Amino acid sequence: MPGVDEEQFQNEFKNLARLQHRNIVRLVGYCHHIQEVPAMYEGKLVLAEKIHRALCLEYMSNGSLEKYISDECDKYDWHTGYGIIKGICQGLKYLHTKLKPPIYHLDLKPANILLDENMVPRIADFGISRLFGDERTRATKSTLGTQGYLPPEYIRNYLISSKFDIFSLGVVIIKIMAGRAGYYRSAEMSSHEFTNFVQENWTNRLHETSSLMKAYSKQVKICIEIGLSCVQEDRHKRPTVKNIVDRLNETETECTYAYKKFDVQENSGGLTPDYFMNNGRPVSEVPLNNDASPSKQARTAWQYPTDMTAQQELGERQAASLPDGIYEPPRQISEGFPESGGTTRVKLRFVDVEGPKDPLYTGCPVQWLNGENAKVVIFENDKQITQGNLSKLKIEILAVHADFFTERGQADFTKEEFNKQIHMYNENESVLTTVNLKNGEACIGSFFFTESYRKKLRLTARVERQDLAVRVQEAITDPFVIKDHRSALNGKRYPPSKEEAVHHLENISLKGKRCNDLADKNITTVKRLMRHYHRDKSGLQKLTGMKDEDWSTMVTHATTCDPGVEIYSYGVAEENCELLFNDFYDLVGVLTNGDYVPVSHLDQFQQLKMKSWKMSAFKKLEEREKSGVLIPDYLMMNGCPVRTVPLNNDAGPSVQAKRTSQYPNDIAAQHEFGDRHSLIGFSLAEVLSNNDAGDSKQEQTVHQGHGQPDASITQANILNDQGSLSAQPTPLHNFL
Questions:
Q1: Any alpha helices (H) in 45-188, and if so which ranges?
Q2: Which of 79, 207, 246, 484 could form a disulfide with 452 if both were Cys (CB 3.0 to 4.6 A apart)?
Q3: What are phi and psi of 213, to 5 degrees?
Q4: Nearest 5°: phi and psi at 32?
Q5: Could you give the CA distance from residue 9 to residue 126 in angstroms, rounded to a whole number?
Q6: Residue 542: alpha-carbon gap to chain centroid
């Protein structure tokens, strides 16, 4: 995600991670990597952080809505166009009314609406969205949205409310129905004229492509009226997204009724239906055309042939008058489909799997015991249904409470009882994913849970349509629980990076009290936590309220984090030395007269002496941090500190180190090297004077006070304070 700062990225990630709706693009994965690269800072060579971030979203094979909007509006039929409008509205309703706090998208436009293989819309790009609590309207002077989709109250006064998205939605709806050029014509016409203009254009197309022109023509009119009402200048006159969805639902009811009553005259020469099945009963919806039909239209039950052959003949006679795709020959299904009791013969099953793993973890794709993706299949009498409408149903995958089905059994429950057991059931917001059966089966793609749940749940597959005359029994898996897990989605890694949020550590939850208490002390990242840890370990444990076991686990995880190469110094003038701290404020060594001694080479007395200075050092580092001048004094290169910028502390040593000694990488060699050089009794000035005298040997022999040679120190190329390379030997000085 180039060009996106940390705040924008965190907004996008946090917003996407909590969303779970069929019309919202789904977050599949997340990657965050920090790379250190050389860079110049104020004329000095330093290591800078280069951040690589990526959000992995589910693939939308049909791209964005932008490429389907044209002036001719001929890239989709009305059924598809209406489905896109309805889906966008449902997604927006979820953001505005089903989340607490609600999310305002603030950049709703065709380019941010993606279409899957079935042309189902998914709202995407939440990079500038805002979370709003009880306060409904806010003012901001930050730049938001896209020109052409911004409401007038924002352009004039920078006001943001839910009606911001409603205005953008209106622009999108109008462009879907009238194209880009048609949208601009709306400003030249009255609402009535523009409605008639759009309705006439779609009516001409419907006449060519649909036998339900009259029914859909009214739906076109309602949709364009909704679009125009959304772009009213006065935001108070714009409808809410809930009002919009309710009105669209009303048009669907009318279209369904009209669909049953399609124009009899369009079916000339054939026998038209006399009745339509409603909840298992035939109801007369059109004038009876049969001479043999009863004079009084049945409102309850009409005698239907019990003989299967007679049923088949009747079905074939009626099918001759129906449009293609409407009629399906009668299927011999078991006696009724009782809502309770009895035997349900049509059912869904999960196949080729042994069930989901237990436990499942938030943010992680659901894994099945056999390691493969699950498949859902529809059966009748234990035989897969491969033809007909039942073989092409849309299936929803949800979670249900496990206890109910453990007590009652899988077959002995009604549809209403089942719906009450859906986990966080509220309309369709609890749907984890959907699949379309093809030849009676479908593979379930990747999906995951966003919140943990301590009680047992089961996965279930059910038919999306709730108005089927046939009772299709739901598929149920074995029970499982959902636990919090800082996966790649939540940024948990071993080791974590130092700029990651503190709740990515073990035993610290994003919504928990520990995280909130730490945030109150401005401990929001791993780096800040580690700095506090080295200043006051017991105080930090008390702040988190962790018991020893949890505390140890968290600290173990945090200490795997790499502090980087930045080194900060604190000068102790009376000892003519510098204490060197890493980016976590952990003491790593001492620099005296230009010679570096790692903290591991200090004896117990020396370390105790360091402890008495550390509190003053912490205070000085905090002052530099608060004043914004906490710039690394050294970079740790191959185990040695290398000067980067001039010292910032006033208490620095009188003789500033220009070079450091090459320190062995091998542990045994380090101990031998340190022990050997702790006895050396010469000054840095003597070494420098010898070098200035022209000693250019590749190896320089260092003598002890007895005059006997001790060892040879190979010269090393190291960075000097100008950032260039130097080849000066710098033996360790006897510390303290």
A1: 78-97, 152-157, 162-185
A2: 484
A3: -55, -45
A4: -140, 115
A5: 10
A6: 33
* CB neighbours of residue 646 within 10 Å: 12
Phi-psi region of 169 (alpha: psi -120 to 50; beta: other; left: phi over 0): alpha
* CA 232/CA 186 separation, integer angstroms: 12
User: What tokens does 32 get?
Assistant: 């965050």
Q: Is the pLDDT of residue 376 over 80?
A: yes
* Annotated active-site residue in 5, 107, 165, 586: 107
Token pair belonging to 665: 């990488």
Q: Coil, strand or helix: which one is 657?
A: coil
SS3 391: helix
Query: How confident is residue 257, by pLDDT bands cut at 50, 70 and 90?
Result: low
Sorted by sequence, the CB contacts under 8 Å of residue 256 that are 6+ apart come out as: none
- Whole-number average pLDDT of the chain: 71
501: its two tokens: 């949020």
Beta bridge partners of 483: 361
Write down how long the chain is. Answer: 736
Residue 455 predicted with pLDDT over 90: no
Burial 265-296 (b: 16+ CB within 10 A, else e): eebeeeebbbbeeeeeebbbebebeeeeeeee
d(CA 219, CA 253): 10
Beta bridge partner(s), residue 634: 567, 643
Element (H, E) at 318: helix 308-319
Q: 483-511: per-residue pLDDT in tens? A: 765 544 444 566 788 888 888 888 888 77
Reply yes or no on whether the pLDDT at 601 is more than 80: yes
Which of 510, 484, 507, 461 has the alpha carbon at shortest distance from 360? Answer: 484
Q: Check pLDDT > 90 for residue 518.
A: yes
Closest-CA residue to 100 (of 140, 138, 144, 132): 132
Q: Any long-range contacts for 722-727 (C-beta under 8 Å, 24+ apart)?
A: 723/43, 723/44, 723/45, 726/659
Q: How many degrees, rounded to 5, is the angle at CA 330 between CA 325 and CA 333?
A: 130
H/E element holding 462? strand 453-463
Residue 234: DSSP 8-state: S
For residue 396, give both structure tokens: 């929803």
Tokens of 276: 């339509």
Closest CA to 62 of 19, 127, 113: 113
Query: Cα angle vertex 254, ends 248, 258, to 5°?
Result: 140
Token pair for 237:
């006159």
CA distance 592 to 572: 10
Please give, one letter per residue, the 3-state secondary structure of 241-306.
HHHHHHHHHHHHHHHHHHHHCCCHHHHCCCCCCCEEEECCEEEECCCCCCCCCCCCCCCCCCCCCC
Q: Is residue 203 within 8 Å of residue 126, measured between CB atoms?
A: no
Would you state the pLDDT for residue 381? 84
> Is 165 a known active-site residue?
no
The single residue listed with the structure tokens 């009772």 is 471
Q: Which pLDDT score, from 0 to 100, does residue 504 have?
A: 84
Neighbours of 381 (CB within 10 A): 12
Angle at 377 between CA 470 and CA 408, to 5 degrees: 65
The pTM assigned to this predicted structure is 0.41
Amino acid identity of residue 54, one-letter, is: A
Label residue 283 by pLDDT band (50, 70, 90). Answer: low
Q: Which two tokens stand for residue 361?
A: 């973890």
Q: Strand 480-483 to strand 360-361: parallel, antiparallel, or no bridges (unpaired)?
A: parallel
Do 104 and 165 meet the contact criterion of CB atoms below 8 Å apart?
A: yes
Query: Which pLDDT band holds residue 525 (cuts at 50, 70, 90)?
Result: very high
Structure tokens at 595: 């010679």
Q: Do residues 201 and 73 touch, judged by C-beta distance below 8 A?
A: yes
Whether residue 128 contacts residue 151, with contact meaning beta carbons closer than 8 Å, is answered with no
C-alpha to C-alpha distances, 122 to 104, 163, 248, 252, 298, nearest whole angstrom = 15, 20, 18, 21, 45
